[in-house]
Amino acid sequence: MARLIISQGPGTGTIHPLRKDILTLGRDEKCGVRLVAEGVSRNHAQVIREKNRWIITDLMSKNGTVVNGERVEQRELKDGDTIKVGDVVLVFSEEGGSAPAAAKDSAPKKSSPKGDDLEIVKRMRASREAIEREVGKVIIGQRSVVRQVIIALFCRGHGLIEGVPGLAKTLLVSTVSKVLRLDFKRIQFTPDLMPSDITGTEVLEEAADTRERYFKFLRGPIFTNVLLADEINRTPPKTQAALLEAMQEYRVTAGGNTHELKPPFFVLATQNPIEQEGTYPLPEAQLDRFMFHIRIDYPPKDEEVDIVLATTKDTVAEPQPVLSGEDILALQNIVRRVPVSRHVATYAASIARATRPKTEEAPGFVNEWLGWGAGPRAAQYMVLGAKAHAVLEGRVNVTCADIREMAPPVLRHRIFTNFNADSEGVGVSEVIEKILRTVPEPSEKDYR
To answer: How confident is the model at residue 434 (pLDDT cuts 50, 70, 90)?
Structure first.
């Protein structure tokens, strides 16, 4: 039986089976799929069955109906299509069955890396729901943060997490590693931390039988799957640089010998936006090594009350593993193989180029507010992130909407405001939002 699954917005995870030939989406209580969210009209759209196909029709709604990033009046739905109605995103599925009952039921089998790519992508949609559900046992709310962490991992990228103390940054990373069945290690960065404390060191040993002396390499905490670099800006640049080779090349050089890191390898660094005394800001070259700059903000009041109640009990929730390292490697390969149209790649490049002041593509406000823009790596990461975002929703088609979703965390640490912006109280986030509103999606004539 065909169904609609809410993947973003109020009621995320809710499944609406299409049992009737006509189903109305909207805010009205009489709608078959009631969506109470910003931008949703009372009777927003209808899904109608015509023989063996489903057609979605916009009911002259105020904000329109968007399918796969394109505003439509009427469109035939295909398996995996995303439908945006106001602030709600739904996925159309032609598969039968129900939502996974437990994480262990929805996790891919160990043989999945050898299976068909499309089959793995379909299973990933169910696994994504299970991942978020298991992480949600420990981390209340912060769904977009969890999604960005997972996307960075599936893109073979790294993440820089910023948030004030007490927002469960460390707990989030350790919980994700448990759910993904990965080895996890944490390094507390301090001013006296040395590079060898991260990568490892060579010690002189003596063979018991021959009395021959030799150097033995003792591996440091960087030899893991998920590395948490806690408060990375509190250690000197020399120690910060020890991460560069590992993050980029997936290897460590010590004593003239190169030691490979076993994949998957994922660095999540945290930093505190306050208490900047005695810190060492990351240089731009190292910031660019991070795929995402992920911001954790204060939770809403209701979620904060739930956090207080959940963390003051004598019972502790234990998340169950959903994926293994083998599954993650397979999904990383699939993300790279997901096709992207020139239309979408052009849009990503246009956004990146619009951030560069004193260039032809830069809008006037960019010249006024930015001192430096993003390089080509920004467009690369936007496309990679869009691929992973589509795969997590069970799709193999990447849209411009996926690019817009990935743009803020990709650009946040790659553009730099100048004095004019600072004096007017304009931050990086406001500049990014205005760029996304200004840069239009390219049409066919733009890339012929």
So the answer is: very high
Q: Give residue 116's pLDDT band: very low, low, confident or very high (50, 70, 90).
A: low
Residues 124-150 as b/e (b if ≥16 CB within 10 A, e otherwise) read: bbbbbbbbbbbbbbbbbbbebbbbbbb
The phi, psi pair for 334, rounded to 5°, reads -65, -40
**129 and 98 in contact (C-beta within 8 Å)?**
no
How far is Cα 422 from Cα 136, in angstroms, rounded to an integer?
37
First to last CA, the chain: 41
Bridge-partner residues for 58, per DSSP?
45
| Separation of alpha carbons 431 and 423, rounded Å | 14
Give residue 435's pLDDT: 94
Task: Tell me how far apart the alpha carbons of residues 403 and 390 are, in angstroms, rounded to a whole number.
Answer: 10
Kindly provide the residue ranges of all beta strands, DSSP E only, lying in 221-368, ordered along the sequence.
Answer: 226-230, 251-254, 257-260, 266-271, 292-295
For residue 278, the SS3 value is coil
Local structure of residue 80 (DSSP, 8 states):
T
Cα 79 vs. chain centroid, distance in angstroms?
A: 23
Instruction: State how far the Cα of 223 lies from the Cα of 408, in Å rounded to an integer.
Output: 30
**CA atoms of 370 and 22, how far apart (whole Å):** 50
Within 13 Å and on the Cβ side, how many CA atoms surround 192? 0
Count CB neighbours of 225 within 10 A. 20
Which tokens go with 388? 């992973």
The phi and psi torsions of 55 (rounded to 5 degrees) equal -120, 130
- What's the pLDDT score for residue 115? 42
Of 443 and 448, the one with more pLDDT: 443
Q: What is the DSSP letter of 282?
A: P
Q: Exposed e or buried b for every residue in 160-183, given b needs 16+ CB within 10 A?
A: bbbbeeebbbeebbbbbbbbbbbe
